[in-house]
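Morning. Coffee machine broken again, so started the prediction first thing and wrote up yesterday's gels while waiting. Chain of 235 residues, entered below exactly as on the submission form.
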Amino acid sequence: MKVAKAQNMRNIDKRAIEKFKIPGIVLMENAAWAVFKRIKERNAKRITVVCGIGNNGGDGFALSRLLYINGYEVNVYLFGDDSKIKGDAKTNYDILLNMGVLIKKRLDELINDIKFSDITVDALFGTGLDRDVEGIFKEVIEIINSHSKYTISVDIPSGINSDNGFKMGCAVISNETVTFGTLKLGLLLNEGREHAGDVFVDNISIPKACIDEEELNITSTYGGYPKHLLKKKTL
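Came back before lunch.
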């Protein structure tokens, strides 16, 4: 199985959008469906989705809509400056607002909602994180780790470096991670191995040629999960 670093994945996404003319919002919608399928398999009823302002948060907004229209009790949280939400993420954010979905921001409410949720979805930071997690974001991650019954991370646990698996100050500890396109190196190395839980890869309609043309030189000889069977430092 091919393994990508963050820049590889940006190139693959760009190739899908520019060469194959797959709109980014289609990829985001398919990412949301991939996580939705995992939630559906667990027969959960009440979900808390924690979003940031980037495309990872956009996946969370799209997922929240799918949950809402399919009859789930969903609590949606946004942390970060909502005026900085752009592109496809902004489209999905605005759809939620137009649907009348309440988007919350208070930490005390987050604690209570997570405690009474079957699943918490981590859509705070994606593979592009390049700095230590601090401030309110650190508090949010600590709340998720302290109170969530079951956590699903979108693409990568927030706070894990996508290229080396190191924890960037603090990171979400997930029961499972749904990642897109291909495996990320950070899911296999260092703290990333432990924080990711079981990993599920969904191609979200990215053509195989997009990945092949990237000529990834890292592969995993381990083709199955659960990921706890991976041996340390083995790719």
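The longest strand covers residues 46-51. Going to sketch it on the whiteboard this afternoon.
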